[in-house]
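[09:14] KT: can someone run the structure on this one? pasting the chain below
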Amino acid sequence: MYSTLARIEEQLADIELANLRRTYIATRPKFLERAIAIGAVPDFWATVIDDAPAEIDQRIQPRDVPALNCLIGVDVERFQVLDAERGEPRSIKLTFCFRTNQWFHDEKIEKWFFWRMSRNGWSGLVSDPVRIRWKERDLTDGLLDMAVNLWEKEKNLQVGERLASVRDTN
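[09:31] RB: done, structure tokens below
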């Protein structure tokens, strides 16, 4: 009985993923068209951020606001979707586009989120920290660079450990 329910739940999940793929492919041109229209609205993203729900607003620090006011576009891409039938639709790339500003050099900042499943049953999105090339003042007071540096060191250690284990097995 429980195996039947589990099989049905798995089939429903597969259908939901297939629908998400097809919907993404079908709606992508309209979202791109909408992005162009949004670009013509003065201060659109500043207004969106100002009116953000509490779940987002509580994560925006007062020191973030001046840089966020330079935001001119946001794009969401399901980069692992190959077509309407293939690819992981839960992985996404967020691209934030900024006008030239006094805070950082980057006109685009991309944040990639990869859908992962672990052996212990956990599943969800994981991402790597993104370095921002600050101009004069780092709005994170160095915290972002510390997080990126730590992540890079941990990644290099993991690569070194894998290389060492490969050498040990040869």
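[09:33] KT: thanks! The chain has a mean pLDDT of 91.
[09:34] RB: yep, looked fine to me
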